[in-house]
Write a structure and sequence with these properties.
Elements: E1 8-11, E2 18-19, H1 21-34, H2 42-48, H3 53-61, H4 69-83, E3 89-90, H5 94-100, E4 105-109, H6 114-123, E5 132-134, H7 147-156, E6 163-167, H8 170-178, E7 182-186, H9 193-198, E8 203-205
Parallel strand pairs: 1-4, 1-6, 4-5, 6-7, 7-8
Antiparallel strand pairs: 2-3
Length: 216
């Protein structure tokens, strides 16, 4: 199949560019421990990640502890701010893929708070690849709402049909579809492959390095 021409690429962060699972789990479980609540498994934390810190802690605390969600968020942020790069690493092929597409306009759209996002990009030494970075607190609406993607398109002047969104979650795929952007799902991230497949991405990849064979 002929490669698709794009002028802009939008990437998710957690589960797409960076494996953040261990540090997220540690921060969640530190908060739970301090609130005298049993810890969660890696699988459980991964199921809860993706819709912002407040939603993450709300899910982690469960229905019987919704009265202390704000306390949980504060504890999570306090710990994660210090430990967000303890075990977080780039997935295989990320750096070379970003370098391959160095001539394209590139941006990050994540539901992670912007301050944490910027620190991770800097710590992993990939911040220079991105012209724009939007966190979950950068816009009124967040993924899967199309507002973040539309904001990137407006800022770059790239038309939706000439842009692609790369992510590991149904929220990434839905945002792309609602914004009229080509959607690419990666199977190695935080979500079960079946969930990603059900979202109906235009392209599904097992390795980010494959992207160069599909987009030019």
């Amino acid at each position: 199949m002929k490669p698709r021409h794009v002028e802009g690429l939008i990437f998710d962060l957690d589960g797409t560019l960076a494996d953040t699972r261990a540090d997220l789990m540690a921060a969640v479980n530190n908060a739970l421990q301090r609130l005298e609540i049993p810890p969660l498994s890696m699988e459980q934390v991964c199921q809860y990640v993706g819709d912002g810190v407040h939603t993450l802690l709300s899910r982690a605390l469960g229905p019987h502890h919704q009265d202390i969600v704000e306390k949980g968020v504060a504890l999570f942020r306090e710990y994660y701010a210090v430990h967000l790069l303890d075990q977080t690493r780039l997935y295989a092929g990320v750096r070379e893929t970003l370098e391959h597409f160095q001539g394209k306009r590139k941006a990050i759209v994540t539901n992670k708070p912007l301050d944490f996002t910027l620190r991770i990009l800097a710590g992993l030494e990939i911040e220079s690849h991105f012209e724009f970075v939007l966190g979950g607190d950068s816009t009124v609406e967040r993924k899967p709402h199309p507002e973040p993607a539309r904001k990137i398109l407006s800022a770059t002047g790239v038309q939706g049909r000439l842009a692609a969104m790369v992510g590991d979650s149904s929220a990434d795929i839905e945002m792309a579809k609602r914004a009229g952007i080509y959607s690419v799902g990666v199977t190695y991230g935080l979500r079960p492959v079946a969930v990603l497949q059900a979202a109906g991405p235009d392209l599904l990849l097992d390795d980010l390095r494959e992207l160069r064979h599909h987009l030019v």
